[in-house]
Amino acid sequence: MTEFDLVGIGNALVDVVVQADDGFLAEHDLDKGGMMLIDPDRADFLYSKMGPATESSGGSCGNTMAGFASFGGCGAYIGKVRDDDFGKVFRHDMNAIGVTFRTPAGDGTSTGRCLVLVTPDAQRTMCTYLGAATELQADDIDGDLIKAAAVTYLEGYLFDPPEAKAAFVRAAEMAHAAGRKVAITLSDSFCVDRHRDSFVHLVDSHIDILFANEDEIMSLYQVDNFDDALQAVRGRCEVACLTRSEKGSVIMSGDEVHVVDAEPTTQVIDTTGAGDQFAAGFLYGYTQGRSLAESGKLGGIAAAEVIAHYGARPEVELSSLLPGG
Amino acid sequence: MTEFDLVGIGNALVDVVVQADDGFLAEHDLDKGGMMLIDPDRADFLYSKMGPATESSGGSCGNTMAGFASFGGCGAYIGKVRDDDFGKVFRHDMNAIGVTFRTPAGDGTSTGRCLVLVTPDAQRTMCTYLGAATELQADDIDGDLIKAAAVTYLEGYLFDPPEAKAAFVRAAEMAHAAGRKVAITLSDSFCVDRHRDSFVHLVDSHIDILFANEDEIMSLYQVDNFDDALQAVRGRCEVACLTRSEKGSVIMSGDEVHVVDAEPTTQVIDTTGAGDQFAAGFLYGYTQGRSLAESGKLGGIAAAEVIAHYGARPEVELSSLLPGG
Asked: For residue B67, is pLDDT > 70?
């Protein structure tokens, strides 16, 4: 029995969500569906060209922690904000959902933000200014939290800020030294492209539970179909959770393989956040001692909830969607 | 022909919108459906008790300007923010919707915010920390804008910060000196209670176009039914626009009286913002030289759009809803 079920480490970001059309993406050279890193000048420029927006707490791992807490899991978060309005928003929302968040605020660059352009086809195109998230350092990794959590969960986007990558390895070592598990999500295929060698090495040497979608796992092992990726990842970590949108997911652990169908959805409004919520559901099941198949189903339930509305965090208590609950 | 159709003056606020239940309102002594002014300590305390929230630009008059611009009207806004994250959000959103906003940012207290608690019955209960909005002074009233706009529109909430009340009178005098019209909305019945004598005097001496809902106009003249209020306001200003939710509106000017039915709505999700958008539609029609009855209908169209979703600003281009458009 640990104090926390899950501690997440991620880039702490506020989402600035705006409706946009394909013309806007083309005019500003933005790859639809991807996540691009941008510098502050570019962030200011794009923001000045965007329509009226809505702000809310985001960050891939932050979204996962929100889903995890919504299922009833006991979680903590490590990430870097500044003590500005957006930093206060991020901290408030973590506290409000019952996730322990005590990483000290930085006093340098402003809280990071992700400009999220939602096109009429329900896709999200993201331009991230990392801001204070780049200041997350190995010293910010709260060893007491890591040791107190059954699983440490890391987002692949952390490989973008160089200091965070070091923090990442520190966290994995601390967790394993305490006999805990380490999980990671590859985040997106562009992120895998940027850091492929590091990710391959990391999975082999530090990761127990891997989350990836079809594009990401094919990019990681540079193969051109899903089954080849499946064979490539087999045996490289304790559990691999591979998500395939409407095709559901494949969960593998040693010789055990589960093909889990997607949950039915009534509508698809905004698809991204699905991966974050799949991880939330799977990790909730896993840390509660449920089977891999059941845990995969919980991942699918959380993903189906979040794609049915705008925004990357659940709008209902996910605990109310637990089968038989 | 003027450069601007409308210039609005209001408390520049960012809305912090959260779902809440009746128990939360009771526990914290909040009057459902009203707008309470709170100090920074109370704002921090309530915020710390609230669930995860979404931030977006608000302010009654700001919402009206958003609707006005969405119809295609040419507008400007005067209001006070600080140059912090929330102030930048407010300024960005004004610019993004095409409303001229050039009031210099303050360097004192932080940008004001309105904690908006949405209960399951679709009502909004608002707790406002005015912040930088209290620093709006007579000197901030941009005479060039006032002279260049056919109508100057003021929100009643401006009577809460003392300096803003003086700014308000200054604006009305400038507008009339330039041969322009002055409009006001009474904002809410609690606001009328706080400032009844000032409002009665103001309507008699400075106002051409008055917006009020049923509760507000009955409170203003301390009568207990709508018809008595109608008789009381008659002849006191050039145009009175009285809104009655699902009963539609009554528009009066001298001997001319129009009873305008409400527009049909498919769903009612979140009712406040209806008054702000009614004013937007009416003033768009009025400044385009449409009849009072047509202008009232445009008010109803804008109100019906905004109550069908969360949030106090329109989600579609209101120009697309113009009859015959």
From this structure: yes
pLDDT in tens, B158-210: 888 888 888 888 999 999 999 999 999 998 888 899 999 999 999 999 999 99
A153 and A64 in contact (C-beta within 8 Å)?
Answer: yes
CATH of domain B4-12+60-109+134-317: 3.40.1190.20
Report the alpha-carbon angle A87-A93-A94, nearest 5.
90
**What tokens does A161 get?**
């800020």
pLDDT above 70 as % of chain B: 99
- Tell me, yes or no, if B15 comes closer than 8 A to chain A by beta carbon: no
Architecture of domain A4-11+59-109+132-319: 3-Layer(aba) Sandwich (3.40)
Q: Listing from the earlier edge strand, what are the strands of the sheet with A4-9?
A: A100-101, A75-78, A4-9, A149-155, A181-185, A209-213, A239-243, A249-253, A256-260
Tell me the shortest Cα–Cα distance from A64 to chain B, in angstroms.
Answer: 14
Which residue from B52, B55, B313 is facing A55, i.e. has the nearest CB?
B55
Q: What is the ipTM of this complex?
A: 0.85
pLDDT of residue B325: 55
Using a CB-CB cut-off of 8 Å, the residues of chain B touching A57 are 52
Share of chain A above pLDDT 70, in %: 99
A residues 72-131 lying closer than 8 A (beta carbon) to B: 84-86, 89, 92-93, 95-97, 110-111
